[in-house]
Specification:
alpha+beta, 3 domains, eight-stranded antiparallel β-sheet, three-stranded antiparallel β-sheet, 18 helices, 52% helix
Amino acid sequence: MNMKEGAMSVTNASHDPGQANAAGDAPARRLHLAVLAVGLLWLLFWYGDTFMAMVHIWDRSETFAHGFVIAPISAWLVWRRRHFIRNLPIEPSLLGVVLGVGAGFAWLLGELASVDAVSQFAVVGMLVAFVWAVMGTAVIRTYAFPIGFLFFMVPFGEFMFPSMMDWTANFIIWAVRASGVPVYAEGYNLVIPSGRWEVVEGCSGVRYLMASVVVGSLFAYLNYTSTRRRLIFVAASIVLPVFANWLRAYGIVMLGHLTDNKLAAGADHLIYGWVFFGIIIMILFWVGSRWQEPEESAPAAPISTPTTAGTARAGRAGWLVAAVVVVSMWNPVLAFIDRQGQHGPVEFAAFSLPATWQPASAASLPEWEPSYSGMRGKLTQTWAGEDGAVGLYVGFYRNQGPGEELINFDNRVLVSKHPVWRRTGESLHSIQIGDRAVPLRGLTMLSNDGRRMMVWYTNWIDGRWTVSPYVAKVYLALSRLTGEGDDSAVVMFSTAYVEGHGETGEARLKAFIEDAGPALQSMLQQTAER
């Protein structure tokens, strides 16, 4: 009985024109696979710097170390479905070419604006679009998750650190007080009777969130076939680690408090954190496995509409060439734009202030300097007014590149775990300079010996002012696209103040910026034109 059914199946397939079309002629399939292999190597050649930038971040940041295993896992996911492709039509896709153009342009904008995340998402998008353009929609639909999984290679999520640190700090304060322990909070610094705690980036939970989303998505794909169940599980893998991190942070503070800081006060609290996170993930997987669905089987019939051999070959070579051109054209375009906007060394133009402000010694203010790097020129001055001194810091950026750009996650007014200063508050301000309202972001700091400082800072990009890193990147991309170059600067104003009299420091900074603003703005413009 089984032999007859098997013979019947073979006979039907051999006379089914749709089956023959789905499988396609062997030379055409070999051509597509060859173009795919060569094209992917070509893409790695042209955009090697972008891929290596991702690797460097994986290597130096534990938050994104999972990036090393994403490509191997993606390859394994494709391999376990390798038999699916036998009944799939392989045809060039116009949609893939169009998406490749969009991804390439996004990569160009990311490079012009020095936004690594945009460039890296775009280069992975180009890779996916190239596979789509060469292999066709049916292949992409069948291997959507294994190929889309590659987007997890991109180190993304650093923007979440401040918000998640805020949430964690607020939960710790609420939970510790609810436990009957008094808490004095100033920014991310928490003081309880048994000692002092600080919420730093490692406490934010971003690392746990990234790991949970990656493994949660993989688990959902391997264990479910329905889109609804997959989305529910991924949502759980996003929400659960956030709440789990709050409990972890609260538990560590209370463990340290109850043991008189004999436990959880040092590096061991990191170990407790990962053990707790591992338990949470195991519980999530255990619960999720209760609704496991049977694995999807390979298609038993061709997925295509029968076409003639002549129609299938028409334009095939042209579309394959277009796919290769689309992924290789953007680097030369970037090189051309870069040549148009190159400038020489930075030479600051001179500027002067009203007589109410006189040059002063740097010793007039507490010792502090922002953690900015990569600038082509730096200007630091101290000016004394009627009621105190104000520090001026200008970092001028030109011919920006990786590690040498104004808007960079590593550029900080105050780094986490600073040996002397710690953050106590933030604020936003706006001051009229000429006909423009200049936005400024404020930061207050407290030193180990009790001194206090406030810093107001903003960014200048080709005559425009902004405190938003995203708007700054847009301004930078527009400036480079129009051939104006990438000259930009960070401008900071600092002053000391006494606890309880912050308004005096704010008034001093406001007066200085209003008096110095026009001259400073003119100086920056003249410096950019040199």
